[in-house]
Specification:
Blueprint lengths: L5 H25 L6 H9 L7
Length: 52
């Protein structure tokens, strides 16, 4: 493949970079973290008795 024109290398680089960015964005935004409502309810229901 050394006879390929430099514009082809640039096109391939841009295409693979775009695919990497799109794939990373899809993975990042498809993750839904669990809401912290459960832990907040547990904290608010417990009574704090300080021992000092």
């Amino acid at each position: 493949m050394p006879q390929m024109a430099p514009i082809s290398w640039l096109t391939l680089f841009i295409a693979f970079s775009a695919i990497l960015v799109i794939f990373s964005a899809m993975n990042y935004f498809s993750f839904l973290p669990k809401s912290p409502e459960i832990s907040e309810k547990k904290i608010s229901q417990t009574s704090f008795n300080w021992k000092w």
